[in-house]
Amino acid sequence: MPSPLSNANAHPHTDCTGNVAVFHDGIIENYDEFKAKLVEAGHKFESDTDTEVVPHLIEDALADGMDREEAFRSAVARLEGSYALASVLARATTDWQTFTAGLNNPILKSDRNYRVEGLAVRYFDWTCYL
């Protein structure tokens, strides 16, 4: 059942520190198991969406000592479903990185054929690895 429309459910969703933001389209089928564990560990959730588990998973991976790319990849590797997501990870106002990922869902919607495969955005013969 989709989350009801509300300001709390609007994207982006962030982690507890406000340094990780995620935009998402699709369904994360196993979000409920993550949410229960994250709440038990002290994470605060502001929405009723499946999206919000992602920034908290990234937050935990960063706390475990992973760098930003490793933390993003680690979180995404745990997700099941059909989704496209983008995340901005910041350390300071001038030190941020953007990552995208998707599974069975286009990350960019346009009149061109953009798709995410793994962590690569593909457009015909051109690939930009993020």
Structure description:
The chain is built from three helices and seven strands, in the order E-E-H-H-H-E-E-E-E-E. Helices cover 24% and strands 34% of the residues. The chain has a domain at 13-102: 4-Layer Sandwich (Glutamine Phosphoribosylpyrophosphate, subunit 1, domain 1), CATH 3.60.20. The protein is globular. Helix 2 crosses helix 3 (68-77). The strands form two sheets. The protein has a four-stranded antiparallel β-sheet. A three-stranded antiparallel β-sheet has the order 5-6-7, with no helix packed on it. The relative contact order is 0.16. Residues 109-130 have low confidence and may be disordered. It is of the alpha+beta class and 130 residues long.
The rounded Rg comes to: 14 Å
Biggest sheet details:
4 strands, antiparallel
Mean pLDDT: 79
Share of residues in helices: 10-25%
What features would you highlight for this structure?
alpha+beta, disordered C terminus, three-stranded antiparallel β-sheet, 130 residues, four-stranded antiparallel β-sheet
Show the helix and strand layout.
Blueprint: E1 13-14, E2 20-28, H1 31-40, H2 53-63, H3 68-77, E3 81-92, E4 95-103, E5 114-117, E6 120-123, E7 126-129
Antiparallel strand pairs: 1-2, 2-3, 3-4, 5-6, 6-7
What is the structure about, briefly put?
With 130 residues, the protein is α+β, with helices and mostly antiparallel strands.
